[in-house]
Write a structure and sequence with these properties.
- Helix 11 packs across helix 14 and helix 13 packs across helix 17.
- The chain is globular, with a radius of gyration of 23 Å.
- Strand 4 and strand 5 form a beta hairpin.
- The protein folds into two domains: 230 residues, 2-Layer Sandwich (Cytochrome Bc1 Complex, Chain A, domain 1); 191 residues, Cytochrome Bc1 Complex, Chain A, domain 1.
- The chain is an alpha+beta fold.
- The strands form two sheets. It has a six-stranded mixed beta sheet, with helices on both faces. Strands 7-11-8-10-9 form a five-stranded mixed beta sheet, sandwiched between helices.
- It is built from 18 helices and eleven strands.
- It starts with a helix and ends with a helix.
- 44% of the residues lie in helices and 18% in strands.
């Protein structure tokens, strides 16, 4: 308790991210950052160990290593077997899982508030003291290869990777998080172990927790559990948020095609956006919401409601340190692909030249504000907000501040951003029953 408190860098709680309780931040020995939010009235705690390492940090020989480790670290530690890990969590009705992204990895648990000590002990044991036994590497190699095969059988998942590859080109953002069949077959235990030991260090770790908790009690649990790992980084400062590398992605082509014997054609059309360190996130969020974020959005109304061309159509954004994207997805009958693409291009062109109406901006702001508040009703969502805020920006933005930023977005700002982004050449990715690009409709083949 004393070590954790003496390292507390926050004299007073930072602004709350919600109405329930205050957010507190401490820097623990070894550069570990702890960010918690007390949420009185709930009986659970969501806690995650976030590591600022993802697929963009891999070399060619390491492709897929972060995701492979996500599987492998749960296979056993010096104190626990894989079965033992599962049994301990099942015995308290909790959830233990992990996910890997392009710029970070998170190992998390969701438990009753009485089981926080168990969750901290399990998570830290898995992340810092796994065995990576050669036999387990081979077992999980097969599991990851099955996951790649499953991705290849899911047109939307396959489409997302194809779009990133086409839009971001040879930049690390263009590589699939999961790796490739070739890279997973070739990666060695020594490569995985070296990646883990060299990069999963305490200065890169953020522990985020939300729920019915006490910050100081969690700080002591974490400091004790990570004590041995932190000792190797005594006096080290926390690694700051990932900065832009200075290398901007360059798209590899205007169009990417993956032939697939699916019943539908699946298409993503989009443009690059600036990275997350460039101001303008709320404006981009409003633009995205009005374009394809809900039932009243322009794309949903034009593609589905008025023309009945597709069951599913929506837009989405991604923002990384170096770049991001604004994209539109649609799934339709193959014979309707040309018309769907033409309508999407028309809508994007209209917004690029004329912006959005005041009513569209008002609805989009309201949708974003409501979604943000409703998400905060869930402790897991709050934990994710804390972890991402600390890793990406090194700070927490209060819910009130976030809501105010959304509400301050004007139609003029949206129009200016739309003109800047949507005037760029479109990049497309298609997964469907087409042998080659000559079989695609002209609306796609003429992109450039």
């Amino acid at each position: 308790m004393d070590a954790a408190r003496s390292a507390d860098t926050t004299a007073a709680p930072v602004p709350s991210t919600g109405v329930h309780g205050a957010v507190r931040r401490s820097e623990l020995p070894g550069g570990v950052r702890l960010v918690t939010e007390s949420v009185p009235g709930v009986r659970s705690v969501a806690i995650g160990i976030w590591i600022g390492i993802g697929s963009v940090d891999e070399t060619g020989q390491q492709a897929g290593a972060a995701h492979f480790l996500e599987h492998l670290l749960f296979k056993g530690t010096r104190r626990r077997t894989a079965v033992g890990i599962a049994e301990e969590m099942d015995a308290v009705g909790g959830e233990l899982n992990a996910f890997t992204a392009k710029e970070h990895t998170c190992y998390y648990a969701h438990v009753l508030d009485t089981d926080v000590a168990l969750a901290v002990d399990l998570l830290t044991d898995v992340v810092t003291d796994a065995q990576l036994a050669p036999a387990d590497v081979e077992v999980e190699r097969g599991v990851v290869l099955e996951e790649i095969a499953m991705r290849d059988d899911d047109p939307e998942d396959l489409l997302g990777d194809l779009f990133d590859q086409t839009l971001f080109g040879e930049h690390p953002l263009g590589l699939p998080v999961i790796g490739s069949e070739e890279s997973i077959r070739g990666i060695t235990r020594d490569t995985l172990h070296g990646f883990w030991r060299s990069l999963y260090t305490t200065p890169r770790m953020v522990v985020a927790a939300a729920g019915n908790l006490d910050h100081d009690a969690v700080a002591e649990l974490v400091a004790t559990a990570l004590g041995r790992a932190a000792n190797g980084h005594a006096g080290a400062a926390a690694v700051p948020p990932r900065a832009a590398s200075g290398t901007r992605p360059v798209r590899s082509a205007a169009l990417g095609l993956q032939s697939d014997e699916s019943e539908q054609a699946h298409v993503l059309l989009g443009v690059p956006t600036p990275g997350r360190h460039v101001p303008g996130s709320p404006v981009l969020a409003v633009l995205n919401s009005a374009l394809g974020g809900g039932l009243s959005s322009r794309l949903f109304q034009q593609v589905r409601e008025q023309r009945g061309l597709a069951y599913q159509v929506y837009s989405s954004t991604s923002r990384y340190a170096d770049a991001g994207s604004l994209s539109v997805y649609a799934g339709c009958a193959p014979e309707r692909l040309g018309e769907v693409v033409a309508v999407v291009r028309d809508v994007l062109g209209e917004v690029a030249t004329g912006g959005l109406t005041d009513a569209e901006v008002t609805r989009a702001r309201g949708a974003l504000r409501g979604g943000l508040v409703l998400a905060c009703e869930d402790t897991a969502s709050r934990m994710h907000r804390l972890g991402r805020g600390e890793l990406d920006h090194g700070r927490q933005r209060s819910l009130s501040e976030s809501l105010a930023r959304i509400e301050a977005v004007t139609p003029g700002e949206v129009a200016a951003l739309a003109a800047e982004l949507l005037d760029q050449p479109l990049t497309a990715a298609v997964v469907g029953p087409y042998e080659d690009e000559t079989e695609l409709p002209a609306a796609l083949r003429e992109l450039g």
